[in-house]
Design a protein that fits this description.
The chain is mainly α and 109 residues long. The chain is built from 5 helices and no strands.
Length: 109
């Protein structure tokens, strides 16, 4: 694991308790920012695109399957949440990603 990955992992893991303690709206906004940052890592031109919360990410951003997996890897690095292939249907939009990540983070001990 690179130093950058280790840094991201420790940042996301240390911020997870803070997310849990934050108001639901603030926590959702923080997760949304992290998801958008993960998208930027895979598709740098996303910064200039407004993405509707209910827009299908793969279609709007024209992500192929490799880009989508790279996005989910970036999500894992930021939040410490693994998204198994069987759950890909649960992370199709920004809203989906936020709800999925909040649920998975809440399940942690």
């Amino acid at each position: 694991m690179s130093d950058d990955s280790a840094s991201l992992m420790s940042e996301s893991q240390s911020s997870t308790p803070a997310l849990a303690a934050a108001s639901p709206l603030a926590a959702d906004e923080a997760v949304m920012r992290g998801v958008i940052d993960a998208l930027h890592a895979v598709a740098p031109d996303v910064a200039s695109v407004q993405i509707a919360p209910d827009a299908r990410l793969r279609e709007v951003l024209e992500l192929d399957s490799i880009d989508f997996v790279a996005f989910l890897t970036a999500v894992h690095e930021r939040f410490g949440v693994d998204v198994p292939e069987r759950d890909y249907r649960h992370v199709q939009t920004l809203q989906d990603c936020v709800a999925y990540l909040r649920r998975r983070m809440a399940e942690r001990p």
